[in-house]
Amino acid sequence: MTTQAPPRPAAVSRRAPVIKKRVGPARVLLHVFLALTAVVWLLPMLWAVYTSLRPYAETASRGFLTLPEKITGENYATAWAQAQFPHFFWNSLLITVPAVLLTLLFAAGIAFFVTRFGFRFNLALLMLFTAGNLLPPQAIITPLYELYLKIPLPWWMSDSGSLYNSAWGVIAIHVAYQCGFCTFVLSNYMRTIPGEITEAAMVDGAPVWRQFFQIILPLCRPAFAALATLESIWIYNDFFWALVLFQSGDKRPITSAIANLSGEYFTNPNLIAAGSLLTAIPTLLVYFLLQKQFVSGLTLGSSKG
Amino acid sequence: MGVSTKAARPSAKRRKVRRRLTKRDKAVLGVLLGVPLVVHVGLVWFPAIASVLLSFTRWDGIGLDTIHWSGFYEYVQAFTNDPSFWPAVVHNVLWLVFLLALPTPFGIFLAYQLDKKIRFSRFYQTAIFLPMVISLAVVGFIWQIFYQPDYGLVNSLLGTNNPNGTYLDWLGDPRLNLWAVLVAAGWRHTAYIMILYLAGLKSFDPSLKEAASIDGANERQIFFRVTFPTLRPVNVIILVVTVLEGLRAFDLVYVLGGNTGSKKGLELLSVLITNNIVGESGQVGYGSALAVILLIVSLVVIVPYLVQHFRREER
Question: Are A286 and A171 in the same domain?
């Protein structure tokens, strides 16, 4: 492999100079290739941004592949108001926050049991949860839909009187599904916590609930941070459950509501672009601010040391 | 990992620890395990098993007393009568083959290049990974704008937006639309594989590479004979992820197909199943029969993977 003079001194000492063969053209080529790939990968999004910033009248008369006469945030303002973004963002929040918190709590509970107390069947339990998480949602949706129609909820919880067409139902299926993945990650994480810690607590007579809430949970903070970031984005981004399990459009979270809105309120592509990008902003923000957490959450499950 | 050390611990000690659990402790443990178990089994596995049972019945989904046994009727319907079924199967297979043939190797290739301690690596990673962060539905809209026949970037650049001359309707033409959607899916899948493989490469011992390099191996040889075989666990994960992505594919097709369910040329098993629910037809038995096919294929991939994964861990 070719190694260019590394920028940092630490890298110099790690890399033996013996294998330094050629410097130059290969590296430059690699940069050109990666930069091109990055641009190509950003292109569809940049195109959407560009479209969203131009007034409809201008693109309609002059075409889209033209230099802009006017750059404006108008489309964003119109999309925000016409499509009732605050309302749908609130719906998303109402689903995402409880779902993430419950998922983490549930997953931590099972992981705690499996790693500290589970005996013969802990592998079977882990497999059950992980396999469940990997099933395609469409493989279970038909009976689930019927089940949701038939599980009654009191009227103060759901105006449909059942789990169907209620945020509770969507939260429940998110929790049921996602706790598989989180259990898998958290149980791997909890195994790295020495058993002596809880055993010592036990000898001191600490009850199980205190071991769980006061010893194990605080120690898992890094894993929680990663999983919370990842799960927030996943649940916010969900399209399928919200599409199938809500009947009325106005209860849907923004991600699936936008699909309806595109026909109903948005008549021009500039508005659709603005609306889509508005929908993506929360996830982009989380990603840019917590990129490390997001990526480590995604890879925690797959590559464990 | 922890499991092995746990298993090695004398069981007498464990028994002692267990005996120290008070009634209240046991109740707490019961809740910690029981509540999630009920929710998960009740909402995931119970419907999965119900799918299998319902696939052998005919039911309009209204009263429980209207269910009646129909044997393999729904399956026969799917195989012989539904004009969308075989196209859906073919498209699912194409989807999978495409993901395996192009975006997966490309993602691995990108990861390998990005792992070379180069400048701006973080920038490249962030840019390429962006599609994975945005919801598939939004990805669908973005590509819709991109592909739009009259003003989309693709047609504007190619000059194929002339209604009187060449006019390519990327998402409408049944000969084109699957491929157009696959490009969007591959765009996203590359990002996913890249990040998974990068994580794998981080755990790879660089001295192995150096040793091979000293022995005179060139870069390609090092990758195919040293890196790739050593990262077998990651390769397995990537294979499983890719197959499952091929089976779960839904959001993109649904949005790019115009939010109406299966469009000609874009039939997928997942879309057909969903149509049965969202649409007015409501044939529970038929939807379940399709779901069972999806379920069986998924389990054939999931179960062996998990068995080998957990067995390796247990050792």
Answer: yes
Total number of domains in chain A: 2
pTM, full prediction: 0.86
Residue A115 near residue A191, CB atoms below 8 Å:
yes
pLDDT digits (tens, 9 = 90+) for B31-61: 988 999 999 999 999 999 999 998 898 877 7
Min Cα distance A47 → chain B (Å) is 7
Domain B74-314 adopts which CATH fold?
MetI-like fold (1.10.3720)
What is the least distance, in Å, from the CA of A225 to any CA of chain B? 17
How many contacts does A have with B, using Cβ atoms within 8 A?
A: 334
**What is the domain range of residue A273?**
79-300
Give the C-alpha distances (Å, rounded to integers) separating A118 from A100, A190, B6, B296.
25, 13, 11, 29
Q: What does the DSSP assignment read for B170-202?
A: TTT-TTTHHHHHHHHHHHHHHHHHHHHHHHHHH
Sign of the four-CA dihedral A220, A225, A227, A231: positive
**Cα gap B106→B111, rounded to integer Å:** 9
A interface test, pick of B5, B150, B277 with most A CB neighbours within 10 Å: B277
User: Best residue in A138, A193, A211 to probe B by mutation, most B CBs within 10 Å?
Assistant: A138
Of B141, B257, B136, the residue nearest B192 (C-alpha): B136
